Amino acid sequence: MRIGRAFLGLLALLAAQKVSTSRSSGSSGQGDVVDLVIVGVVLVLALISWYVTTWRVDGDTLQVASGLIRRNTVRVPLARVQAVDLVEPLLARILGLAEVRVRTAGGSGGDARLQYLKLEHAHSVRASLLAMAHGLPDSTPPPPERSLFRISNRRLVVSMALTGAAVGSLLPLAAVLSLLAAGVVTPAAIGLAGGTLLLDIFAVVSRMVRRVAEEWGFETAEAPDGLRIRSGFASRVAETIPYGRVQAVRMLEPLLWRPFGWCRLELHLAGAVHRGHDQPRSAIRRALLPVGSRAEAEWLIGRILPDHQVTLTPPPKRALVRAPFSYHFLAAGRNRSCAVSVSGRVRKLTEWVPLGKVQSIRYVQGPIERALDLASVQLDVAGRRTSVRWWHRAAPEADELIAALPAECQAARDHDSDLSRQATARVAAARLSGSPPSSPPQPTPAPLPELHPRVSRYPPTA
Amino acid sequence: MDPSRSGAGGDSWLSPSPRLLTMRRVEIAVATIVVALAVLVPVTSAAGVIPLIVYPALAIAGVIGEFIAGRRYRSWGYCERSRDLLVRRGVLMKRLTVVPYGRMQLVDVTAGAAERVFGLATIKLHTAASTTDARIPGLRPDEATRLRDQLAALGEAQAAGV
């Protein structure tokens, strides 16, 4: 609710102004009236925008129309619906409302948003949209969820405080304070440096606070159509991540978390195509497990990438000459369905990329590498900065990789297209025949791992 | 030893038009002359050994530049296979990029100022990954058009979902 945020800001501003004017002598009645009028105008605008937004389902399409002066209509073919999420921004949550966000696969125009419905109504709308998208009758209940994990907020805050950024900005502060206390430096001498230090700390702290607020009360659940994630402190978001949309999985293990055995899982997802149409598709990063144990992370990875066990190999010994500082932490490997690479000294980073999601493959050989008979191979994935790399491998191994990988990725891509074609055909057949589609045989769900006693777990739903 | 030279089993590598080499040589010659003119006044007014060092050094730099330009031109190559496109380049830093047709999202044909003078064009391939760096400079216009249409058709036919 963009107007909502502006509204709150306006209220805060007016309140501050009120406080300051009432302290000085004689508040002016006229100023009060003007303030009230402004507040009233903003409220009316918000109400109009809410009133004017209409939506309906027209055969196979969902149409959402918004805007009073410039009418903006979004048409979403129901067959292309990937996920239906519920978002509750702070103001809407206070009023008991929610927004239904429909995410589509491919196409332009981003998401269709239905703002704002009563919470129960939003739930039922979501259920019927999901049913229609899968070719089932309207009244089908939403797919059942199996709750998995819930991250304790205390663990979240502690883990955030133990990140490198936090420690890195607090150390200078501690140093300065101790110098001040010891009387070595006078406050006047700190001067400008102190100001920038404070700004820097403020930036780091506000980023941390924002992250904690986004990931507060993080709950993960599993449904047949993907993973469900609920999180948020002020605004609550319930999001579905379809398995097929995952481009890469990253696991981060910062140095300060290792005594606790914690790690962080992030997913790279395919983003919507930008409206500009000539921009390549972007990628979004979503935290799947903000902080959790290795066992929990392994289990989650197993759900997303069923075949993720890969034997990792290190580069040959002579790569030490080329990369003396990072050599000991490099490893990579692949199997038929995904590729994995490990790197990072202070912050260990493990990246999994399903071979079917590879965008391009690159072979690079610098002058030092050529002298040492080494080469590197990279697999690129949607977005920036994400790739699986075989750093500084023996040249024959790199040759073998670049010769074999294109065919393997193609095979994985063809396999994925077959699966999605079958799924689409099932849904289309269901629509024609009017009966629910037959679902592929579901593998029996794996048992949940042993959780740390502090992590609470819901009783599993039926 | 490295696949960019072996041709990976009977693939035929095409290279950009020789006009690209001419264009690069002209660029280097122009740059050398400009630098020579720029230092003309300070050098001739300086005493002693400096004029004897600077101009020969410039000449040697120009010759080395021409040599490097020739090596770099010969290192550019592209190969159209049945399901992907290979692009290789680089002398010191050898690179080979494989882009599957099904992953190509955008095929860009551009011509900079110098390229326009020599009647050449550059093709750039974009995928969903921003780190994909496949580009082929110095193509003749008809070859550029053919390649672009070919890539667009193959990309359409083999498009894979994201």
Largest sheet of chain A: 7 strands, antiparallel
In terms of DSSP E residues, the strand content of chain A is 25-35%
Look up the CATH topology of the largest domain in chain A. PH-domain like
Identify the biggest protein-protein contact and residues per side: A-B, 46 and 33 residues
Low-pLDDT windows of residues of chain B: 1-7
Global mean pLDDT of chain A: 79
Radius of gyration of chain B: 20 Å
Distance between the termini of chain B: 34 Å
Q: SSE order of chain B, as H and E? A: HHHHEEEEHEEH
Please summarize the sheet with the most strands of chain B. Answer: 3 strands, antiparallel
H and E string of chain A = HHEEEEHEEHEHHHEEEEEEHHEEEEHEEH
- By CATH, the architecture of the largest domain in chain A is named Roll
Weakly predicted, low-confidence segments of chain A: 274-279, 450-462
Oligomeric composition of the shown chains = heterodimer
Shape of chain A: flat
The CATH topology of the largest domain in chain B turns out to be PH-domain like
The CATH class of the largest domain in chain B: Mainly Beta
Radius of gyration of chain A: 27 Å
Strand portion of chain B: 15-25%
> What's the total count of β strands of chain A?
19
Beta strand count of chain B: 6
